[in-house]
Design brief:
Blueprint (H helix, E strand, L loop, with lengths): L4 H11 L4 E6 L5 E5 H17 L7 E5 L4 H13 L2 E4 L6 H11 L3 E5 L3 H8 L7 E5 L27 E6 L9 E5 H15 L6 E4 L6 H14 L2 E5 L7 H7 L4 E5 H9 L12 E5 L4 H11 L4 E4 L9 E2 L12 E2 L4 E5 L13 E6 L9 E2 L3 H6 L1 E2 L2 E10 L5 E6 L3 E4 L2 E4 H9 L4 E11 L3 E10 L8 H9 L10 E7 L10 H6 L4 E2 L1
Parallel strand pairs: 1-10, 3-4, 3-5, 5-6, 9-10, 9-11, 11-12, 12-13, 25-26
Antiparallel strand pairs: 1-2, 7-8, 8-18, 13-14, 14-15, 16-17, 17-20, 19-20, 20-21, 22-23, 24-25, 26-27
């Protein structure tokens, strides 16, 4: 029988009742700690409050909260009740929230006090709006959410395939889809990621990425619960404060994206005394020089991983011994990953580029499907393999190297051009901090690459002409950008992924 996240939480509470579960550092620097037993009691009170407001097993609870004790308590309360959470970006607009509400029909919404007006605006036009509870995101008592404590031993145990969450994907290349995550999915993610990171009861995860995103839920919180470890939760990411926070809270494990890592470097970070980090996951490539500088600052060699909301755990992870910064890693123990021809699904030889495909059981080791969209779910699979849309090549040792999205392969006058290659060349220029390359239609060549560049704030000045000349000296004609635009920043999701489809539409980009 598949374990559930509710099972894993009950097991952790029983095995480590007096051990620290959560350390919360608020925006004002104040710190509050809970043991597993103490937080279980808090979650039981919150579960009682949800029941009193109409949320039961099978109900949906909408979360519009920044990182906070309330988010964690509502999540675990809903898990115990057998309800579903729908975590939305706390910075979402009223129309975006209205779409989430309409698609998931929550019984209860828990909303940050500062976001209440926007939420009510989004829910106003709906015929059946949820019961809304506003809570302060620095609140550690959660009285507005509390009710008579639930006795977990008197309630039905949630089923492994019960829906536990609907997470709307970040939309880096298209509009968001609702990814359905089960109780078994969360347990599988936690077990796999705890094992992959070598996480033990005495370890502590540092969480700075937003909790509404899969990374913090799967890789940090679920793994900590699986191992009975603790979590130090920060209200938000601070590039200048990250290292000090890790040292202050005795964190041994962390998880980042490439963009926050580059932000740490851009702020001129210096070594911090007292760091205990021995493990740090990261996603997306950084340069070799950036990697070595970060490894020196962190005191450990970060390990790249690859995963999606749909794949549940990170299905590719770099080995702890000798991680290579340019490689995504190899299949994580417990995961099935292969490379297939994007057109017909046939096997791809070593060294050649193909699509990353992931095998597994929907609802157990892979997501259960897309919310109310069986056609899109069906198109996401071929012969039982989930199609990630990401391209990679595999070396003789079974290690995967990212080669872009399928949509990142441009057809320029009949030639295949990988925007990843163009981005890599531009990114090597000493004055370039970040770069994104997209395809734009061309009357003669079908489409051409166009670059958007953020200049390094401490680098030498550079203009588009110099960058075009740099590319001309390093790329074949078909791969050279048609033009390069210097911008203040790239449009991103809340966890730092570049939203390339906005660049392709030419919106949300501010030129320098």
């Amino acid at each position: 029988m598949n374990p559930t996240l509710a099972d894993r939480w009950r097991q952790a509470v029983a095995a480590n009742a007096d051990g620290t579960f959560l350390v919360w550092e608020g925006p004002d620097g104040s710190v509050h700690e809970w043991t597993y037993a103490e937080f279980d009691a808090l979650a039981a009170r919150v579960a009682g409050g949800l029941l009193e407001r109409g949320a039961e097993a099978g109900s949906t609870v909408h979360l519009v909260l920044a990182n906070s004790p309330a988010f964690v308590a509502v999540w675990l309360a809903a898990v115990g009740l057998g309800a579903t959470i729908v975590p939305s970006d706390p910075g979402a607009t009223a129309p975006e929230l209205a779409g989430h509400i309409e698609r998931t029909a929550p019984a209860v919404a828990v909303v940050g006090v500062d976001r209440l007006a926007v939420y009510e605006q989004g829910a106003a036009a709906l015929s059946a709006p949820p019961v809304v509870v506003a809570v302060g995101e620095d609140d550690t008592e959660l009285a507005p959410l509390s009710g008579n404590p639930v006795r977990w031993d008197e309630r039905r145990r949630p089923g492994a395939f019960d829906r536990a969450a609907v997470m709307f994907t970040s939309g880096t290349t298209s509009a968001p889809k609702g990814v359905v995550v089960t109780q078994a999915n969360y347990a599988f993610a936690g077990d796999v990621m705890a094992a992959a990171a070598g996480l033990a009861k005495d370890d502590r995860q540092l969480v700075v990425l937003p909790l509404f995103h899969a990374n913090a839920q799967y890789y940090s919180f679920a793994s900590a619960i699986s191992a009975g470890a603790s979590v130090a939760l920060m209200s938000s990411f601070s590039a200048s404060g990250f290292l000090a926070q890790a040292a202050r809270h005795g964190a041994t494990h962390a998880s980042l994206f490439a963009a926050p890592m580059r932000m740490i470097l851009a702020r001129g970070a210096t070594p911090v005394v007292g760091l205990q980090l021995r493990h740090c996951w990261y996603a997306q490539n950084i340069t070799g020089d950036q990697y070595e500088t970060l490894a020196g600052l962190l005191g450990c060699r970060p390990r790249q991983l690859y995963g999606m909301t749909e794949t549940i755990p990170a299905v590719l992870t770099s080995r702890a011994l000798g991680p290579v910064p340019s490689l995504m890693g190899e299949p994580t123990i417990g995961c099935r990953v292969d490379i297939a021809n994007p057109d017909d699904g046939t096997p791809v030889p070593v060294g050649e580029v193909g699509e990353v495909v992931v095998g597994g059981e929907p609802g157990s080791t892979l997501f259960a499907g897309y919310l109310d969209d069986p056609q899109t779910t069906e198109r996401a699979y071929r012969d039982g393999w989930f199609l990630t849309g990401d391209l990679a090549r595999r070396d003789a040792l079974g290690r995967f190297e990212f080669a872009g999205r399928r949509s990142d392969v441009l057809k320029v006058a009949g030639e295949n051009v990988s925007v990843v290659e163009v981005e890599s060349v531009l990114g090597e220029h000493p004055s370039v901090l970040e770069v994104a390359v997209v395809g734009e239609p061309d009357d003669i060549r079908d489409e051409v690459p166009v670059g958007y560049v953020v200049v390094h704030p401490e680098g030498a000045s550079v203009d588009s002409a110099e960058l075009l000349a740099w590319c001309e000296a390093r790329l074949a004609k078909s791969k050279r950008p048609q033009r390069i635009e210097l911008v203040d920043e790239l449009p991103r999701t809340s966890v730092g992924k570049i939203r390339k489809f906005l660049l392709q539409r030419g919106s949300q980009v501010t030129s320098t």
